[in-house]
Design brief:
heterodimer; A: 814 residues; mainly alpha; Leucine-rich Repeat Variant; 6-stranded antiparallel sheet; 54% helix; 5% strand; B: 425 residues; alpha+beta; Beta-Lactamase; Immunoglobulin-like; 3 domains; 9-stranded mixed sheet; 5-stranded antiparallel sheet; 23 strands; flat; endocytosis (chain B); membrane (chain B)
């Protein structure tokens, strides 16, 4: 190194947060940094790893505090050559933090990093790779590509998974370089990796890298989807979400496949992982939409009732932050499928020591759960909450009571009892409750004009002590509506006499229109006060609206309009008809849009993502693959669109009858590497009608063994059949298969697994298929793994198709 | 994906910040400090905050804020889960109630952990048991150093919650069944809400890769086995640790698993029917005319076998804010008026089963200029009853199978405590 000290570029690098404006303070810190520098250069520290650790630790500590320690760069780079893993990690951290501001120095350490990528310890290999990719220096691309490529075939999953994430970093650094190398294809290949965390990282990377493609992320086809779903139990709570998030994008080949997918996902609901549970609900939802048809609503209802118990358990036992997010999601499910959560209404009662944001949310959910059975309980609970010390909570509770009354979901008499409670609140003499109750009553009256007689009595006296202007305005409005109150004009008269003290325009406007309404009903009593009011109001210039209204009324009266005509002008027609709801309640469009973004922040904020996510962070959502859903019937022996037991998706009684055999005809890439990469010609489909396998075939044991041995292992095809449960004996499986023309050569039961040697003859081509099946009893998942060899097959796509047919037949048989 | 994770102290200063993506800067911390920390809105406002196109999802541990920043439309439950997992990991490394100092002293360890648990904004492996294999600063020390090459296969193996070759001199399993009873009684004695949430905590010290089978007196299982002993408990819903084979549970409701080593939570369940409430409390609270006096009469009955006893029983009976003094008569324990809690707090160290207690309190109020109605908050009860389960759940068996066929000692404990045990007055 030629220069001992890196050139000091004015002290503070552009990236470094200039946290210390005080120059005196900076100086003193500088002193400390210099001290560290001498310490690092000191020869004796070289020999004392513990001391060296401490010094470097101090450097890192300063770094986090925002103090600029970039001047120590060259010293730190020297420290990278160490066997001490702890020091290495710290230096890597330092390096990643400051590389951008010192690119020329950072390039110097690439050699060491590259060397570390070949270290014998997989841990070091992974760490070095992560640091190398994390440098994010444009000039580094050439150095990164090679170690990255090597890491993908590394023997250790830790390195592979780090390498996969490294590709994403490379992509962000230099898209051209990424696209030139065939990394995308490699990633698709790696979806078959035996390690679950590698697979989930592959999905993450593909989703981001392919974000600009028409699919808006990773391309999925049937083969990929089923492959991933069959392995879902291997994934950890974080990585399982990656797979679950793919499901909503997938269009199932047909309805049966949708049911099959739901059955595969069902166990995830039993996990204690809120993220996974919510993602599963979304996946279910999308499958229901894919099935569509007249049963869609019923199916969604069934889905929500299936998911209700796990969701409620999570809400009642998790922390408040998660609870908040879960409650928001529960709320949108309640909106989408009303009625299902009704019987769990007690879960939404407030606990005294919950954070208030949870309380608000629960109060807003409660009215949505009201039905004739539980309404009395809910109303009683909300009425309790009205007395809460927190003003916001008591206000919200009053509003929620109003919502129950306005929605009229509480059965007969409920609205009236709520109105009575609200009337009692008017007399409570607590300012905010009175005012809120008054506003709520105004809404209730608009929906239930018949309740006027209940509301009328206390109005004139409550006018005195309702202080807030919105409440006062509502009372004035109510007085105008309930003209039968004998005292009404006199209550208003007092207000008119103190007109100058009113400083809120809404009260004035309400006063004006109410007085007019009363005038139409009882002209004799009101005339005098109306005159005084109009005189004041026409002179009032504080509100344009008020002024204009007053003038209008004045001129109408002056021109001697008939009372009925006047009444029709004055009548504000605010009442709602039967079955009509307030506009706030009818936001179906927004809700439908939000359901599409279930399990994202959109639900928490209650807004569509386009309103709050910057454009470059928007993720396109496209359903795929394009050729799905397949037309039933076009593929031969397709089952009817909706089987009898179709709706029993979630109970585990109906066997998941998988789709008819369809070659994974998609194919921009040969995703699972099973078919012929050179353009898989769609092989002839199975003839419609007849059974796919010739039942008359038979073989001897020797023939079987010879044929098996004659076919190269590389030509065999592996596939999986999910079973309902582990069969009790081999006999069970054999008889079930024999019915479909699949014969058993031999079978056996070991303590840990079942083994089957089966064969079948493909009826259209007459080719023999030899099958070895293994069923692991210990894994807990009943999954029959098949190794199939086709005698005389070409080892290409047509074989794959035959195996697909076979898999389909077998899983329907078992 | 998450752009940045930061940890702030009470004042809003950054203690730890790890930037995973470069789309947010440290400046974001300032806006968080101004709008959340300074506004003191934790607890009142939602834990998700949007400031200028950047979403902040945060939680707290003691007085530290753990904040995740993101610009994209993330899955909120997952982000929170990650934050909690991070806190859980830090607890394992730094002790149950680690504070600011512990954080500062272990800065590098924390960065290591954050790098290992998240890469480029996506959560990676977060299992404490596995992390402690290769990050071993701080309090956590591995029992025995495994070979590095063997180690990584552990890090990402299919059974990532347990490593191979664990040895223990004594093979022991501790099972704790912890139940918390949630009760909400209305003032006239109606049950508004009553449920038990239970956890089965295990501490396993087992050699090798043992297969365990665990059984509760679950009604569905008992009915199937047709043993005419006590009827089983109807479990509404349960969730399991990742190690439990859900396929088997769905098929025949047996709980089988290969456990992680050490402490973990095997399952959680919820029961809503036939709950034995350990305490019955009958309140009578009267506010006298003119708001100068409140008289409180309470009867507390311990509703469990007289062989058992409850510990740490605390009853908080709220009184109005303007309480001057309270004359309390009670048969045992200690009771006094605690102004800072605005409540009469009655503590009993040991409350025998079937015992009954009366409390009688006359509360004098200070006169106020404007009479303010009293909100009458609920009576709050805390207790612990060892060897008692409110739901009636008990462990029927735990079988451990291992190739070497060693003998295992099993210890089972039950504790029922009060979750939200509230009686309105």
């Amino acid at each position: 190194m030629a220069t001992a000290y890196p050139p000091n570029q004015g002290g503070v690098p552009p990236e470094g947060p200039a946290a210390m404006p005080d120059s005196y303070f900076t100086e003193s810190r500088k002193g400390e940094v210099n001290e560290l520098k001498t310490l690092l250069r000191n020869f004796s520290t070289e020999r004392d790893p513990k001391r060296k650790r401490d010094i470097i630790k101090k450097v890192i500590a300063y770094m986090t505090l925002g103090i600029d320690v970039s001047r120590l760069f060259s010293e730190m780079m020297l420290a990278i050559e160490t066997r001490d893993l702890v020091i290495k990690k710290m230096v890597y951290l330092y390096l990643v933090n400051y590389a951008r501001s010192h690119p020329e120095l950072a390039t110097m350490c690439t050699n060491t990093l590259q060397k570390d990528c070949g270290n014998e310890d997989p841990m070091v290999r992974g760490l070095a790779l992560r640091a190398l990719c994390g440098l994010q220096l444009p000039g580094m691309v050439e150095y990164i590509s090679e170690p990255l490529r090597r890491s993908l075939t590394d023997g250790h999953a830790y390195v592979r998974k780090t390498g996969v994430m490294g590709m994403l970093k490379l992509y962000r650094l230099n898209r051209e370089a990424f696209q030139e190398s065939s990394f995308v294809d490699i990633l698709y290949d790696m979806l078959r990796d035996p390690d679950a965390s590698v697979v989930s990282n592959c999905i993450i990377v593909l989703n981001e890298v392919m974000a600009d493609s028409p699919n808006g992320g990773m391309a999925i086809n049937r083969a990929i989807m089923l492959h991933l779903l069959n392995r879902i139990h291997e994934f950890s709570e974080f990585s399982v979400v990656q797979i679950l998030d793919l499901v909503p994008k997938y269009i199932p080949a047909n309805n049966d496949e949708a049911y099959q997918i739901m059955n595969l996902l069902d166990p995830v609901l039993g996990r204690y992982s809120p993220g996974a549970v919510i993602a599963t609900i979304r996946a279910f939802w999308s499958m229901a939409e894919a099935v569509g048809g007249p049963d869609e609503e019923a199916m969604k209802r069934q889905i929500v009732s299936r998911c209700k118990a796990p969701l409620v358990t999570l809400i009642s036992s998790c922390s408040s932050e998660l609870g908040y997010s879960l409650l928001k999601h529960a709320e949108s499910l309640i909106d989408a499928v009303p009625g299902v959560f009704d019987d769990e209404y007690r879960q939404f009662f407030l606990k005294y020591n919950e954070p208030t944001h949870i309380k608000y949310l629960k109060i807003s959910i409660l009215p949505k759960l009201a039905n004739p059975e539980n309404a009395p309980d809910i109303v009683a609970e909300l009425a309790e909450c009205v007395n809460d010390m927190n003003i916001k909570i008591s206000r919200y509770s009053v509003r929620s009571l109003m919502q129950i009354a306005c929605r009229d979901t509480g059965g007969p008499g409920c609205a009236e009892s709520i109105a009575r409670r609200l009337v009692e609140m008017l007399d409570l003499n607590v300012s905010h409750i009175c005012s809120e109750a008054a506003t709520s009553l105004a809404s209730v009256i608009r929906k239930h004009p018949g309740l006027k007689s209940v509301i009328a009595p206390p109005l004139s006296r409550s006018l005195k002590y309702v202080e807030e202007s919105s409440g006062k305005g509502s009372i004035v409005y109510l007085l105008g509506e309930c003209s039968e109150v004998t005292m009404a004009p006199y209550a208003l008269e007092k207000l008119i006499d103190t007109y100058d003290k009113i400083d809120d325009a809404t009260i004035k406007i309400a006063l004006l229109s109410s007085t007019m309404k009363l005038f139409c009903q009882r002209p004799a009593e009101v005339q005098a006060m109306l005159g005084r009011l109009l005189a004041k109001a026409t002179d009032d210039v504080s509100s344009q609206d008020l002024h204009d209204r007053a003038l209008l009324y004045y001129r109408m009266l002056e021109s001697g309009v008939d009372l009925p005509v006047l009444a029709s002008v004055v009548d504000t027609k605010t009442a709602l008809g039967q079955g009509v709801n307030f506009a706030e309640e009818d936001d179906f469009e927004l809700r439908a849009e939000l359901m599409k973004e279930f399990n994202t922040l959109s639900i928490v904020f209650g807004r569509e993502s386009k309103n709050f996510i910057a454009e470059e962070f928007q993720v396109k959502f496209a359903k795929q693959p394009k050729e799905h859903p397949l037309e039933p019937g076009s593929e031969g022996a397709a089952p009817s669109a909706i089987p009898g037991g179709g709706l029993d998706v979630l109970g585990k009684t109906s066997a998941p009858a998988p789709a008819p055999a369809v070659a994974a005809a998609a194919g921009s890439f040969d995703l699972l590497g099973m078919g012929d990469p050179g353009g898989a010609a769609p092989a002839p489909a199975a003839p419609s009608g007849g059974p796919p396998f010739n039942a008359a075939v038979s073989m001897t044991g020797d023939e079987y063994q010879n044929t098996w041995g004659a076919i190269n292992d590389s030509q065999s095809v592996v596939s999986m059949v999910p079973l309902k449960k582990i069969p009790g004996s081999t006999q069970e499986v054999e008889t079930a298969l024999a019915r479909h023309g699949i014969k058993t050569m031999a079978s056996g039961e070991l303590p840990t697994e079942f083994k089957f040697f089966l064969y079948a003859q493909d009826s259209p081509t007459g080719l023999l298929m030899l099958i070895q099946g293994n069923l692991d009893k210990q894994s807990g998942e009943a999954l029959l793994v098949l190794t199939v060899k086709v005698n005389g097959g070409d080892g290409g796509a047509s074989d794959q198709q035959k195996v697909d047919t076979l898999t389909a037949v077998m899983s329907s048989a078992l | 994906m998450i752009s940045m994770i930061m940890v702030l102290n009470q004042k809003g200063d950054i203690m730890i910040s790890r930037q995973y993506r470069d789309d947010v800067g440290r400046a974001a911390a300032d806006s968080f400090r101004l709008q959340v920390v300074a506004a003191k809105e934790t607890g009142t406002e939602a834990p998700v905050k949007r400031i200028e196109n950047c979403s902040f999802l945060y939680t707290r541990h003691l007085n530290m804020y753990f904040v995740a920043l993101t610009r994209s439309n993330v899955n909120p439950a997952l982000v929170f889960e990650y934050l909690f997992q991070l806190i859980r990991i830090l607890k394992a490394y730094l002790g149950e109630d680690f504070d600011e100092n512990a954080m500062r002293n272990n800065m590098t360890l924390i960065y290591e952990l954050m790098d290992e648990t998240m890469d480029f904004g996506y959560p990676q492996n977060c299992a404490v048991d596995v992390l402690r294999l290769y990050i071993n600063l701080g309090n956590v020390r591995p029992q025995d150093e495994p070979e590095p090459s063997q180690l990584t296969s552990q890090i990402t193996g299919a059974i990532d919650w347990r490593r191979e070759g664990i040895r223990h001199k004594k093979n022991e399993v501790y099972i704790d069944v912890l139940e918390s009873v949630n009760l909400l009684l209305s003032s006239n004695g109606n049950v508004l809400r009553n449920e038990v949430t239970g956890q089965v905590q295990m501490n396993t010290k087992l050699t090798g890769m043992p297969e365990c089978k665990f059984g509760l007196n679950d009604k569905l299982v008992i009915d199937k086995e047709k043993e005419d002993r006590k009827p089983g408990v109807e479990i509404d819903d349960c969730t399991f640790h990742r190690c439990v084979r859900l396929g088997k549970f769905d098929a025949d409701r047996t709980i089988t698993f290969i456990p992680p080593d050490g402490e973990f939570e095997l399952m959680r369940y919820r029961v809503t029917d036939n709950i034995n409430l350990p305490f019955r409390i009958i309140p009578a609270v009267q506010e006298e005319q003119g708001m100068t006096k409140v008289s409180i009469n309470l009867k507390v009955i311990a509703n469990f076998s007289d062989q058992l006893y409850a510990t740490h029983v605390v009853l908080k009976v709220p009184v109005p804010k303007n309480t001057a003094k309270a004359k309390i008569k009670h048969s045992f324990g200690r009771a006094k008026y605690e102004p800072e809690q605005q409540a009469i707090v009655w503590r009993v160290k040991r409350f025998a089963g079937k015992a009954e207690c009366h409390i009688n309190a006359e509360v004098d109020l200070m006169p106020t200029v404007r009479p303010k109605p009293w909100s009458r908050p609920p009576i709050n009860v805390e207790f612990q009853v060892p060897m008692f389960t409110a739901s009636g759940v008990h462990v029927r068996f735990l079988r451990v199978y291992d190739k070497s066929g060693y003998h295992t000692n099993r210890w089972v404990r039950y504790i029922t405590k009060a979750g939200n045990y509230q009686i309105r007055i």
